[in-house]
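Record type: ASSEMBLY
Status: queued
Input:
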Amino acid sequence: MAAGHVSIGRGLRGPLHAPAAGAAAGLSAVDAAARALASGDADAMLAGGTEACVGAPALATLGEGGFAALAEAAALLALETAPAAARRGAPVLARLLGTATAAGEAGAAAAAAVERALARARVPREAVAVALSPLPLPPALLPRALRLNTRPHLGDAVAAGGAADAAVAVAALCGHAAAAAATGPLAAPLRALAAGGVAVVVAPCALGGGAAAVVLGAPA
Amino acid sequence: MLRAAASAAHRRAAAGAAAALRSLASTPTTIVVTGTGAVTPLGATVGATLAALARGAAAPRRPAVEELGDAWAHRADVLTSLPGVATVSDGVLADAVAAGLPPTTPGAARGAARFAALADAAAGQALKQAGLRGDRGARVGAAVGCAFGGFSELAAAGAALGADGGAGLRRCGGEGAVGEAGPRAAPPPTCRPRRPF
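Status: finished
Output:
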């Protein structure tokens, strides 16, 4: 259990969550962390996902059926309530405006999770500049947003995929030079993030169903 | 008169309390990101991963036969024809660890499964960027999602247990051991992957 390992290794004694919701698990963890912060149970949470299931049995099980290359990765966000961060004088890289999870078939769950996360964030759908996802999203989901599908680049890091996309979005939103100077096939969405647009990260679980979504904004 | 004034004061107080409650309900706690950490097939940090994405780099590749391990070499033709892998090299993981704070309990990471070691490297980076040190631990929590986790460790254990190369390892707990049926055989219906949309 990675959450337990991290908490012991890092001396963390606040709330613990270890979601296992397939490809939605990393962003489900961010959702759980946001709720722990909102309830006052913690001042800060490390939240994200990890995966290292690359190996012959995993390849044989998951490599069939049109799935992409299996990937190893881990990505975590340090989340804090704004007052706690202000008290410490911590730099704000981005704002976590809303989070949500949804059950059901992956496509429908992705749409429901996005809708709920945007409602919690009080951000209208039209205001979303970039939709990041480890999977290609259905055209009807946030049709006006620029797409940033990381799977051809990172592979399928399952639970870590959505969390890695969120970490990349945060880095781009807080002005990392590489985003503004992007030249490759992802140049348009990365530049839009560098310009400070609202980002939605969606992680549907095509294998087992369910999805999680987070809404990120540039620092105020 | 007095009673009227008291009643008015009470009404005002009640209205104030109701407004405060409404405001509490309608003002969600603002949550901010103060740190990020990552180790990915494209880089040892979030910045390195972003820089690689900005160049359009792609990590997935065909696995080499020797990466499959001896127990699986007889399936190399099939396994290397599947969609491929995107791995984190030992050098990248070492760089990822070096980019973050060292663990406060170093022994915890020793011997940890790979998925936990990757998570710990990302944790060290996120804590370092946020400036969160161990002394705040009581008010800091962890939420780390993981879908398959020790899949590879379990498989390695199975392979080590069985002289037949892990033939007893069952797929999804259903019929057909991987070593016997082969990865081309249809998986049990309960674990057949759905087509990604």
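Annotation: Residues 7 and 13 of chain A are 7 Å apart (CA to CA).
Annotation: The beta strands of chain A are 16-17, 44-51, 70-71, 73-81, 94-102, 128-133, 146-149, 198-204, 211-217.
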